[in-house]
Write a structure and sequence with these properties.
Blueprint: E1 5-17, H1 22-31, E2 35-48, E3 53-57, H2 64-71, E4 79-84, H3 93-99, E5 100-104, H4 116-126, H5 131-145, H6 160-172, E6 178-182, H7 190-205, E7 210-214, H8 218-224, E8 227-232, E9 235-241, H9 242-249, E10 254-259, E11 272-278, E12 281-286, H10 294-304, E13 307-313, H11 317-330
Parallel strand pairs: 3-7, 3-8, 5-6, 6-7
Antiparallel strand pairs: 1-2, 1-4, 8-9, 10-12, 10-13, 11-12
Length: 331
């Protein structure tokens, strides 16, 4: 096994009791309970290299958060194996905690009634960070996240964006090599989101941290991740770079051309169909076969026809991932 995060055949099954309606049903459930197994994660395998930001994507209930909870040591897998920075997280939780940082968008690791600065001091003592290193990291995080204007404010009085920025700083105060982010920017405004993205880019590119990110924000994925792992119904259904995923699912492009001569006969090209035509204006799209990329299609149209104007519409990442989700549902 190689990489900062190594996952092999990881599975997690939860068992719940079926609750029947009515008094008789409740009594029967008490005397002879019916147990049902729910496979939250099933046989997932992937690696994340040092200094890589991987986006772990999938619909709600796909198993993303359960996977992260196993990698952070919160849950023990039913089967399979995982290592984070060389440590089995659910067997050595204390050592694993020193190697990782974690931010969950809906929860905070800060003390609700204390000023942010005091929470940072408590975390410094918990992780036994030398005071000089602690001060240097706080200064660095302040430059990147603009914390000092509110770090004497009680956590309960912070806005969502301020709190998440503080949580990011708190997660990295002990300088962990691996960081888990479970929808960290949910509910943020666009300005704070971009500030957080810049911070994450800096941590990966300049500090060499390994980041595993879950999010439903495709803009975030496009700007931060080079590689995506897609899970659905607890199973891994796709693992590849954004370019590979675009080539596989991003065929919903169109090339719009205005012909020099409106009477030119227009015919389909290899892999390219005529979607519609209005006089000199023609719209081309993929014909459903092994369609070329949008840039190959653009080149083919220019080489075949004389045009006065040409434009292209390429599917954005949200469209591409929607197509990937739909195919995953069909599997």
């Amino acid at each position: 096994m190689s990489g900062a995060i190594q996952v092999r055949g990881l599975s997690r099954t939860f068992h719940t009791t079926v609750r029947r309606p009515g008094f008789a049903g409740a009594l029967r459930s008490l005397v002879a309970p019916e147990r049902v197994a729910k496979h939250a994660v099933s046989d997932i395998t992937f690696d994340v290299d040092s200094g890589e930001l991987l986006a772990l994507l999938g619909p709600n209930g796909a198993g993303k958060s359960t996977t992260i909870k196993m990698l952070t040591g919160i849950l023990t897998p039913s089967s399979g194996e995982a290592r984070v920075a060389g440590v089995v997280p659910y067997q050595d939780r204390e050592r694993n905690a020193r190697n990782i940082g974690a931010v969950f968008g809906q929860r905070t690791q800060l003390w609700w009634d204390l000023p942010v600065r005091e929470s940072f001091t408590i975390l410094r003592d918990i992780y036994e960070v030398p005071k000089a290193e602690h001060s240097a990291r706080l200064a660095e995080f302040d430059d990147l996240l603009a914390l000092s204007s509110f770090w004497d404010t009680r956590v309960r009085h912070l806005s969502l964006g301020q709190r998440v920025r503080c949580d990011l700083a708190a997660a990295l105060l002990h300088d962990p090599p691996v960081v888990f982010l479970d929808e960290p920017t949910i509910g943020m405004d666009v300005v704070v989101k971009e500030q957080v993205r810049e911070f994450l880019r800096y941590q990966v590119e300049q500090r060499g941290r390994t980041v595993l990110l879950t999010t439903h924000d495709m803009t975030e994925v496009e700007r931060l991740a080079e590689r995506v792992v897609l899970v659905n119904h607890g199973r891994l259904v796709l693992d590849g770079t954004l370019d590979e995923i675009r080539r596989k699912f991003g065929s919903t492009w169109q090339v719009r051309a205005t012909l020099t001569d409106p009477h030119t006969e227009v015919v389909a090209l290899p892999g390219i169909a005529v979607v519609r035509r209005e006089g000199a204006r023609v719209v081309f799209g993929p014909d459903g076969s092994a369609a070329p990329t949008v840039h190959q299609a653009l080149k083919s149209v220019i080489e075949r026809y004389e045009v006065t104007d040409i434009a292209l519409d390429e599917a954005d990442l949200e469209d591409v991932m929607r197509a990937a989700y739909i195919q995953a549902e069909a599997v």
